[in-house]
């Protein structure tokens, strides 16, 4: 708008003084002719016909205010006199006078401008020249422009133009008519694709006619060449044998293409002009193309689909790899709806209450199921479209072969002044021509060719060569009629279903693996399997029935030069000579024959990935953009309000991971026990693995992936009883920490593999003793206790805020719990924390917490969520390296002379109870003779990573218990915390340990090294080498044999009876320090008066249950799961109730009593 406003003043004065109907004041027509103004000066008429004045100078009192009123009166009087003296008008039927008024010129506009108006124009120009399209409304520029326009003369043409610009801009800020509306009818996809365009609901609807993209203007010969002859001469693979794909593309890419074409095209048997599926990429092969088909796919309970099946009958006649992909989407959908129900964002998926009347209860459950199903479909389709754009399309144009993050994403937001053709969410109608464009039969592999030949024998009992066209059509009709309407009852590749209706994972993965390894064929002439001869003949006849344009007409439509010679179509004489015989002229070559028989493009990195024929290469990109950008549910209505925060996050792509490729999410969600987090088969399934190896080696990324074939990983063995847990953790010979060692080596290299927790034996025991001596120095207890009793109140003062009266509020997890442990680690290990006391640091509290939490997850949790492990490790490695290098610099300084060390010591927080403790720890570690690099990467960094997030989780769980199920104990905790005595602190320690026992979720992974049987209570668990064994402390914490009255908080249990810190050689080394620290934190928080959760969901620790009594936690946006608590707000009344400082008379310093 501002650009248009500023351009108005660039008009010439000459153009602004032409007479035309104008708006007086606000553009409305004013009465009267040229205004004559009576003034106190001498008046003369100007050449332009307007009155100009030269007032005489008058010295005396200022009567300007009165003068303005007098002038107005005289002007009105002048108008009356002028009107009275006008002659009668005989030019109009009713004798009325012409009311047109001459416009004032630019000179008059400029004279009306004030100094502040010039400043406004300067601000306008400055904003237009800026890089942002967003306006800073704090400058009041719009209001100042209104002032400017209002101050222009009522006869100003500029004023009218500026008003027009302002109205146009304000109108353009809103859509007319709106593209998005509220309500289930508009927020969810309709089963038949209707209402994608709200104003034209039938656009793209199933059961409507195909569109025509290209007008067929050329008069085509009649009769045309025999379709069978065309196939036999220029299409059939029998004319030269199978040609492999030049870029070693996998059949999986063409399976995706098969799903896409069946998503958008299903020609009616009754009327070839009608498509019985929608014109949108809405995954209708899975969900169905109308309400009946969709209902057949649904369980109609909890939003789920019937397991391991799909709606599209036609795809049962395709190689099973196609169906396997749809089954993966089926499993993903069911995963999504389970998560939606569990997370229940803002109560959106709350199950109906039992006390409803039966009719209302039934309706409520139906809506509950439908809301889950429809939202799950939107999210699943979100992953589907991202796979198409980020995996499929990138491979088509060869972007998978380079380290580039660019991709052709049609959903990009464009400026409002972009071309009208780039509108979004306006709907789509698939064209008949593209039904032909997507028939990539030349690319069918030899394996799939053999599969198709065997299918003929299975259906007809004889070779395809012996099956007539009539037999084929009758046979296919019977086969479709015999196929059960219930997708769950259909046979799929001869695979057997279990009692739960699911197919065997091993069978599905075996088929997928073979499909990924299957080399596709090359595009172009004479490479279509002969078994598809009848299919191709039907396709050509169908194209003729549609009266499609010719190949050259199609090319010209897309801005491509037409083929002038047959050799332009295909440079092989064996092909172009036959084309010449068949079609006589290049302009008469039919669309489908031409699309198949053109030369294929040579691979180009990037640019040409799958080597399609020339015309297809151009047209499919236009169609991809149109399909995606025209779909309202992928553009204007693709947002968290429809998909939920979690849903959008679950399927989004990250350009820092595989340059955005997301296919691996589908594989790993569907088969978490078969595809490892870094399996090349899952991450890049559209190119055969051997070719991927060459690509990744060239790009320097080969080590990021596993090149092993997918195999089933045995399910982990869970040990849950006291005796079982103890027997595993104390038998280091049989159960090792292999997964910890792998994580440490990945993040920290060879030194990381030497960390005390990376293995067993004398070497690691020595490393443990070194750290123990450093950790537990003289007066360590007092140092840790005093530090936490100091940092917690400090953080409470910094982050809490008053919400009315005497009530205060703070996010106790994010700002107090997490931050306190970050400060502790930073001071002990000289981590570069930026704070008020240390402004020269690098990381904020929250940033450093996230880095250390990621380190912990990668090392100790392994595949806590296999679908997210790869991305987490990809993010964790660089941030760990960055932190380690900064710490290494600090430790290197400390290792120098005492003078330099003194300088470094000043970087730490002042009045810090840990100042001497931390410096001594680092220097003690260096004295062990490991060197700076080894000290940092094998001791400091892994220890810091192991302690922060873990300790924060423990205290968060304790608080969650005492603010919830254990809130009856808060008054006593508050009383004890205020006593500030050693005896009271000891009781608080027992409250802490009981809170940990009640709500703590602890466990540890081990890898079995030998055949052994574990006695786990009443059951025996057989373990063999390589098995993953998980010991859980959750259930044993409620074991009455160990903890009498396990549901009660008892303060008489021995401290050493608690196993929360583990047992054996890898028991938590910092257990004693942790108990001191967390007791101090409970003391500081517990003494807050009327401590309680904040009202509403913000006061809850949102957690999602997992197997074995464990949880994952939602972030504050409810968009991402995290292994550790992320947020929970608390309230209290009054101050912090800190104990009064006590003066140490011996030293004259203040210390907390």
Automatic annotation (TrEMBL):
> Keywords for this entry?
Dioxygenase, Heme, Iron, Metal-binding, Oxidoreductase, Virulence
Q: Does the keyword Oxidoreductase apply?
A: yes
**Any one Gene Ontology molecular-function term assigned to this protein's record:** heme binding
Please report the organism this UniProt entry assigns to the protein: Botrytis galanthina
Q: Where is the composition biased (Polar residues)?
A: 18-32, 44-56
Q: Which residues bind heme b?
A: 441
Does Heme show up as a keyword for this record? Answer: yes
Gene3D superfamilies xrefs? Cytochrome P450, Haem peroxidase domain superfamily, animal type
**Self-association state and partner proteins as the record states:** Homotetramer.
- Give the span(s) annotated as Disordered: 1-63
InterPro entries linked to this entry: Cyt_P450, Cyt_P450_sf, Haem_peroxidase_animal, Haem_peroxidase_sf, Haem_peroxidase_sf_animal, Oxylipin_biosynth_metab, Ppo-like_N
PROSITE patterns referenced in this protein's UniProt entry, alphabetically: PEROXIDASE_3
Name of the protein: Linoleate 8R-lipoxygenase
Q: Which CDD domains match?
A: CYP_LDS-like_C (cd20612), linoleate_diol_synthase_like (cd09817)
The record's listing under SUPFAM superfamilies reads:
Cytochrome P450, Heme-dependent peroxidases
> What Gene Ontology terms for biological process does this UniProt record contain?
fatty acid metabolic process; response to oxidative stress
């Amino acid at each position: 708008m501002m650009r248009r406003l500023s351009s108005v003043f660039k008009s010439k004065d000459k153009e602004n003084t032409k007479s035309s109907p104008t708006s007086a004041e606000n553009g409305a027509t004013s009465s009267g002719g040229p205004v004559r103004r009576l003034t106190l000066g001498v008046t003369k008429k100007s050449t332009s016909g307007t009155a100009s004045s030269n007032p005489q100078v008058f010295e005396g009192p200022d009567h300007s205010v009165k003068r303005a009123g007098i002038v107005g009166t005289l002007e009105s009087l002048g108008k009356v006199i002028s009107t009275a003296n006008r002659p009668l008008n005989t030019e109009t039927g009713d004798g009325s006078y012409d009311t047109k008024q001459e416009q004032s010129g630019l000179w008059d506009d400029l004279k009306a401008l004030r100094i502040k108006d010039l400043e406004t124009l300067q601000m306008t120009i400055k904003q237009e020249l800026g890089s942002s399209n967003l306006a800073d409304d704090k400058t009041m520029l719009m209001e100042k422009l209104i002032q400017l326009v209002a101050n222009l003369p009522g006869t100003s043409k500029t004023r009218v133009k500026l008003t027009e610009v302002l109205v146009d801009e304000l109108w353009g800020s809103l859509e007319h008519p709106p593209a998005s509306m509220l309500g289930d009818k508009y927020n969810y996809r309709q089963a038949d694709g209707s209402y994608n365009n709200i104003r034209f609901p039938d656009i793209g609807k199933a059961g409507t006619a195909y569109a025509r993209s290209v007008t067929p203007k050329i008069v085509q010969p009649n009769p045309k060449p025999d379709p069978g002859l065309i196939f036999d001469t220029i299409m059939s693979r029998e004319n030269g044998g199978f040609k492999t794909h030049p870029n070693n593309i996998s059949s999986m890419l063409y399976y995706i293409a098969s799903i896409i074409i069946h998503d958008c095209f299903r020609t009616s048997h009754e009327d070839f002009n009608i498509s019985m599926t929608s014109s949108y990429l809405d995954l209708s092969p899975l969900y169905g193309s109308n309400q009946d088909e969709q209902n057949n796919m649904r369980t109609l309970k909890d939003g789920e689909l019937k397991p391991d099946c799909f709606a599209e009958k036609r795809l049962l006649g395709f190689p099973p790899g196609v169906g396997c992909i749809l089954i993966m989407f089926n499993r993903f959908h069911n995963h999504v709806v389970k998560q939606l129900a569990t997370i229940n964002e803002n109560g959106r998926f709350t199950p109906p209450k039992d006390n409803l009347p039966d009719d209302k209860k039934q309706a409520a459950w139906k809506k509950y199921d439908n809301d889950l199903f429809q939202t799950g479909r939107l999210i699943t389709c979100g992953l589907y479209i991202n796979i198409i754009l980020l995996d499929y399309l990138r491979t088509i144009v060869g972007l998978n072969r380079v380290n580039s993050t660019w991709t052709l994403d049609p959903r990009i937001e464009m400026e409002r002044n972009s071309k009208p053709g780039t509108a979004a969410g306006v709907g789509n109608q698939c064209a008949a021509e593209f039904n032909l464009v997507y028939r990539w039969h030349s690319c069918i592999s030899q394996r799939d060719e053999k599969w198709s030949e065997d299918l003929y024998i299975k259906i007809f009992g004889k070779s395809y060569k012996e099956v007539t066209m009539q037999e084929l059509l009758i046979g296919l009709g019977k086969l479709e009629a015999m196929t059960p309407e219930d997708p769950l009852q259909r046979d799929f590749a001869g695979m057997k279903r279990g009692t739960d209706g699911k197919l065997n994972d091993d069978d599905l993965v075996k088929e997928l693996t073979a499909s990924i390894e299957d080399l596709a064929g090359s595009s172009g002439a004479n490479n279509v399997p002969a078994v598809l001869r009848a299919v191709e003949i039907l396709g050509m006849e169908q194209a003729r029935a549609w009266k499609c344009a010719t190949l050259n007409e199609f090319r010209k439509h897309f801005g491509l030069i037409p083929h002038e010679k047959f050799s332009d179509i295909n440079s092989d004489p064996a092909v172009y000579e036959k084309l010449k015989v068949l079609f006589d002229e290049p302009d008469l070559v039919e669309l489908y024959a031409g699309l198949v028989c053109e030369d294929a493009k040579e691979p180009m990195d990037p640019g040409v990935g799958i080597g399609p024929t020339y015309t297809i290469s151009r047209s499919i990109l236009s169609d991809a953009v149109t399909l995606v950008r025209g779909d309202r549910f992928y553009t204007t209505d693709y947002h968290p309000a429809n998909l939920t925060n979690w849903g959008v996050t679950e399927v989004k792509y990250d350009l820092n991971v595989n340059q955005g490729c997301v296919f691996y999410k589908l594989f790993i969600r569907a088969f978490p026990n078969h595809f490892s987090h870094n399996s090349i088969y899952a991450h890049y399934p559209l190119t055969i693995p051997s070719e991927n190896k060459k690509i990744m080696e060239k790009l320097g990324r080969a080590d990021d992936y596993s090149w092993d074939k997918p195999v089933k990983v045995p399910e982990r063995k869970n040990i849950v009883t006291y005796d079982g847990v103890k027997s595993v953790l104390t038998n280091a010979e049989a159960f090792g920490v292999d997964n910890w060692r792998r994580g440490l080596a990945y993040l920290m290299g060879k030194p990381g593999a030497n960390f005390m927790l990376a293995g067993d034996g004398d070497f690691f025991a020595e490393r443990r003793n070194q750290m123990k001596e450093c950790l537990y120095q003289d007066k360590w207890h007092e140092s840790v206790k005093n530090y936490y009793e100091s940092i917690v109140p400090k953080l409470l003062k910094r982050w809490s805020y008053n919400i009315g009266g005497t009530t205060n509020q703070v996010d106790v997890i994010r700002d107090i719990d997490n931050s306190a442990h970050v400060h502790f680690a930073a001071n002990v290990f000289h981590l570069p924390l930026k704070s008020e006391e240390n402004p020269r640091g690098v990381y904020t509290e929250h940033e450093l917490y996230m880095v250390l939490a990621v380190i912990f997850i990668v090392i100790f949790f392994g595949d806590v969520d296999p679908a997210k492990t790869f991305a987490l490790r990809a993010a964790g490695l660089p941030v760990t390296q960055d932190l380690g290098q900064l710490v290494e610099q600090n430790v290197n300084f400390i290792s120098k002379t005492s003078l330099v060390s003194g300088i470094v010591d000043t970087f730490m927080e002042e009045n810090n109870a840990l100042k001497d403790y931390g410096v001594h720890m680092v220097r003690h570690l260096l004295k062990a003779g490991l060197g700076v690099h080894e000290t940092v990467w094998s001791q400091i960094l892994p220890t810091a990573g192991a302690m922060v997030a873990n300790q924060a989780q423990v205290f968060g769980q304790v608080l969650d218990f005492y603010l919830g199920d254990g809130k009856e104990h808060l008054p006593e905790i508050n009383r004890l915390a205020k006593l500030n005595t050693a005896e009271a602190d000891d009781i608080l320690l027992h409250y802490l340990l009981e809170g940990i026992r009640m709500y703590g979720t602890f466990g540890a992974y081990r890898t079995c090294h030998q055949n052994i049987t574990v006695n786990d209570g009443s059951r025996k668990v057989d373990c063999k080498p390589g098995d993953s064994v998980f010991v859980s402390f959750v259930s044993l914490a409620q074991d009455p044999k160990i903890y009498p009255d396990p549901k009660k908080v008892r303060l008489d249990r021995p401290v050493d009876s608690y196993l929360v810190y583990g047992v054996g050689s890898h028991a938590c080394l910092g257990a004693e320090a942790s108990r001191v620290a967390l007791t101090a934190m409970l003391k500081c928080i517990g003494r807050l008066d009327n401590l309680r959760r904040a009202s509403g969901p913000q006061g809850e620790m949102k957690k999602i249950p997992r197997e074995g009594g464990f949880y994952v936690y939602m972030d504050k946006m409810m968009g991402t799961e995290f292994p550790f608590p992320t947020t929970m707000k608390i309230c209290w009344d009054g101050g912090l109730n800190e104990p009064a400082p006590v003066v140490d008379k011996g030293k004259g310093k203040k210390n907390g009593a």
